[in-house]
Amino acid sequence: MTFDEKYFDIGRLDRLSYRDTCVHNLDPRAKVIATMLFLITVISFPKYEVVALAPFFLFPVLLMTIGEIPVRFILKKVIVVSPFAIFIGIFNPLLDTGTVAVISGVPVSGGWLSFLSIILKFTLTISAALLLIATTSFPGVCHALRRLGFPPLFVSQLFFLYRYLFVLMEEAMRMIRARDMRSFGTPGAGIKVFVRLIGILFLRTVDRAERIYYAMLSRGFQGDIPSLKRSRMAAADLAFMAATISFLGVFRFFRITEGIGRVVQGLFA
Amino acid sequence: MHMADALLSPAVGTTLWAGTVAVGGYASKKLKAQIDDRMIPLMGVLGAFIFAAQMINFTIPGTGSSGHLGGGMILAILLGPHAAFLVMASVLTVQALFFADGGLLALGCNIWNLGFYPCFLVYPLIYKPLTGGSKNPGRILVASIASAVVALQFGAFSVVMETLLSGKSELPLGAFVLLMQPIHLAIGIIEGFVTAGIINYVRGARPEILDSIAASRPLGAGISLKKVMMTFAVLAAITGGALSWFASTHPDGLEWSVEKIYGRGELPEQKHGIAPVLKDLQEKTAFLPDYNFKPAGNEPKKKEAVPVWPGIEAGTSLAGITGAAIVLGIIVLIGMGIRSFRGRGKG
Amino acid sequence: MSHHIVDFKNVSFRYPDGTEALRGINFRITHGESVGVVGANGAGKSTLLQHMNGCLMPTSGTVTIGDLTLTGKTRREIRKKVGIVFQNPDDQLFMPTVFDDVAFGPLNLGMDEESVRERVRKALSMVHSLDLRDKPPHHLSSGQKSAVAIASVMAMEPDILAMDEPAANLDPKSRRSLITLLKSFRHSKIIASHDLDLILDVCQRCIVIRDGTVVADGPSAEILTNRTLLEENNLELPLSFQRR
Amino acid sequence: MSHHIVDFKNVSFRYPDGTEALRGINFRITHGESVGVVGANGAGKSTLLQHMNGCLMPTSGTVTIGDLTLTGKTRREIRKKVGIVFQNPDDQLFMPTVFDDVAFGPLNLGMDEESVRERVRKALSMVHSLDLRDKPPHHLSSGQKSAVAIASVMAMEPDILAMDEPAANLDPKSRRSLITLLKSFRHSKIIASHDLDLILDVCQRCIVIRDGTVVADGPSAEILTNRTLLEENNLELPLSFQRR
Ligand SMILES: Nc1ncnc2c1ncn2[C@@H]1O[C@H](COP(=O)(O)OP(=O)(O)OP(=O)(O)O)[C@@H](O)[C@H]1O
Ligand SMILES: Nc1ncnc2c1ncn2[C@@H]1O[C@H](COP(=O)(O)OP(=O)(O)OP(=O)(O)O)[C@@H](O)[C@H]1O
Ligand SMILES: [Mg+2]
Ligand SMILES: [Mg+2]
């Protein structure tokens, strides 16, 4: 991704979180917890498991449709980050060729199954993480983390990081533009100029931090970032959690997908 | 070099999360006791700085490819290990959430790999002794390169171990190490150059800034070696304990890697569909001395139905596939149904 | 009401790198006055404003706000009385959403939840920005950012308002509504700006600074029409006096 | 001389996050003209300027500079013709000394040392900053930085000069000398600013932008005195027309 794309991408994801749907209105803590449980459940399937992963697509699909998040946008982002997992996973079919299953006479090697399993898990976990932000907003997630007991210092780092990400990225973007404008090929993009640019950006960042600090002092900052309790867990939030947990439990421990397959096959047999 | 959720097992993922949370808790406790509250916005904004800086590319001399700044080392030098660790953790959290770089479960691993090593291992044990508090640009350069290289080697090796212990990848240890470490050696050297360049630039341009950051960072920043080693030992014990538990309950995870390292030098043939892919890969992986894949293109003869993982074939049957297709179909229908219902509701 | 008084007595300030930014500043602002501070780039305007609430502490001399002399101990009290709006609203809006930002001050004052919400609502309505409540500042336009920055200071209900270059980068209409807004505040105000027309509109009194000293102090209508004085200080007649 | 021509035909631009910043912009600037671009905050002025040399590429429509149509391929050529000075000189000055900074562009053009020196000398004298040659940019005042930023662009001897909000944060005198400087350039110029008095002084022609479209285009003297037009666009009469 180029710088600009990356920058705009965050902006887009961020804007998705302002929508007003019932998914967006759930308590952020409920969504954070549900997402983490979802991730652990998906990851906990053994390496050759493929079939039982299918039902888990319901979770992101529901979040996406009810939360009015564009499918394409999420898919595109999943694809953009996929190379590392694919790069590691692609060795499985090459190295693990022992047959672990025979499907209507066609033997399937373990490597292909585990590779497919990695890809499915990858899609599920990444989209769940993206959807968490797209339906909760970054500040929402931070407030949730704070109320879930993460150190306040860490959470304030997240707040500042998020807030100044956009400011500094824009600053960096303008600097790159200025550099590229006056360098008509590679020499301008060399490591020396790079170090300078970063150095200047650093100095400006420190100056900015100083100004922010003064602004904070001017408004009574005493070492802690205070926060308002925004919401109490409502019935809807509890219901959402309960539904998620039972969904995860049922599909983790019972082989329902396969059962459905059997029943349907039985109908046609 | 970000670890990905899909490659992790829950045991490895949660173990490293636990380690990261422990170190994070320790760091924030330390900071809270000693911090000058001027540091709070500074740390946050520096996180954003690392983020923005990572997005600026430069051309790596002689190669034409581009690199960018990693950040852990420079933060440790500027802020001291505790603050640097927290900043790195928040940078990686934002990456995980906004770019899905890695994922939420792998976040623990990533913070560990990219934050713990530079801040708590390399900074006190390599950078500080090598510079000895000197402001000499040459020493800073040497120390930065050494630190960045070591930190990245640790990080890369951890990625290898985390992947292998999770047992989702079939990559053999040797090959994996050969894939990861040399690349990260190169990246480390460049990161070292860049880190030193920035420190030296800042020192030249506005020396007072470095001094004022140094002055406002917690006294304990020059942490005692003993404490680091203690922490490290405790964490190693936790990790080791968890891993051995994992290894004993899921022997397959370790078994196959051991098997791959010492065992079958030769691997059976492949299915036809991937012959070209395989050939290509074979050429690309030719530098792995120990592993030669059998020439592809052999007619597939896969009748040796040896269940590697007993009970697994039960799930991966035709019934399973049918079931999965039906389930996915239903999910898509649900999704589309909600969409159109909503569309109608609005229109 | 003595608590609306600002008094600088012989205030000097030297930055750690040795720059003497203020050299013996003297002035006194009484209740309800509105004062402009003008001068060349680098004259010391921003440095001066930062002394108003102890962001910077004088190297020598005394700053008195109301009946408190600025010291390390009284600083916290003084910050409740003096609200400063800095030059760049991006530096001022440091919380992730507009609401959080405006609530930051009142929460630090230890107010309870209900009153905080009420204060935020009031401050945001004052600058006509209640709708922006849940947005993150980086999605606001520059004019909106300025307005919210003012709200976040107003939410602390300060007795004295200090602003540094409030109109930079605003389009003419936003600038005009800012002027209207400023005129409607009944606080003591002190505004540093290069926009002499704005000073002329908002402030009855004007202080000219050069190299860290006060070189003129008097009614804006007099000072800002004194061409020689202005030109000596890298300034010029307000544009609205430069007839074509 | 066809190479001093700027031609926007039906240019639209949408930021990847969906903001439609330009919607069918049309105008043509001929040799030696100097054109002001005005409009409300967020109207699209900066976005427009960034199309002049391919920092941004139109989503649809064509930008022609001289006889080249802007594409990924011609971008590099076009950057030699169009110099842009951004709003904040700090973004622009990244080399360790003023000399290095001004030399950066010419060196990248592959010129030999002697000619580079000559160019730098010329560019710096043009903005009366030859003395600053060996200073590091971060020790300059804001006015000086602006001047050097302009020199660093002028050193590439562009045919066309584009500037975004060149006078923000300058004190009135620095602003005035910038105006004098701009007037003395014989290049085609295009200047985006909220400072309508500056536009009136420097540009014969003025384009008004609203929501990414051109709503007026004509002689500055006419446009900037048309009160209704201006007020519809979040602008107001230049201050020098607002007699007191
Ligand atoms: N953090 C700092 N460290 C050292 N010197 C500084 C610092 N900030 C400002 N100065 C110097 O102090 C003097 C006064 O600066 P100040 O920012 O108060 O000027 P100003 O009147 O606000 O200028 P402007 O109109 O450009 O905003 C200048 O010489 C400036 O270079
Ligand atoms: N990086 C960006 N990503 C998304 N939208 C953007 C971006 N930059 C600008 N915009 C939007 O594009 C529109 C035009 O912005 P632009 O910066 O061109 O306005 P402008 O006329 O220069 O405003 P100003 O007078 O405040 O400088 C605005 O709606 C703005 O919010
Ligand atoms: Mg100032
Ligand atoms: Mg603009």
Describe this structure as you would to a colleague:
The complex is a heterotetramer, with 1 copy of chain A (269 residues), 1 copy of chain B (347 residues) and 2 copies of chain C (244 residues). With 269 residues, chain A is mainly α. Chain A has 13 helices and 2 strands, in the order αααααααββαααααα. Chain A folds into 2 domains: 156 residues, no CATH class; 82 residues, no CATH class. Helix content of chain A is 72%, strand content 3%. Chain A has a two-stranded antiparallel ribbon with strand order 1-2. Chain B has one domain: Arp2/3 complex 21 kDa subunit ARPC3 (Orthogonal Bundle). In chain B, a hairpin with a 6-residue loop joins strand 1 and strand 2. Chain C has 244 residues and is α/β, with parallel strands linked by helices. Chain C has a single domain, classed as Rossmann fold (3-Layer(aba) Sandwich), CATH 3.40.50.300. Chain C has 10 helices and 10 strands. In chain C, strands 6-7-8-3-9-10 form a 6-stranded mixed β-sheet, sandwiched between helices. Chain C has a 4-stranded antiparallel β-sheet with strand order 2-1-4-5, with helices on one face. In chain C, helix 4 crosses helix 5 and helix 5 crosses helix 6. Classes of the chains: A mainly alpha (269), B mainly alpha (347), C alpha/beta (244). Chains in contact: A-B, A-C, A-D, B-C, B-D, C-D. The interface between B and D is small, with 3 and 3 residues. The site of one adenosine-5'-triphosphate has 12 residues of chain D, from helix 1.
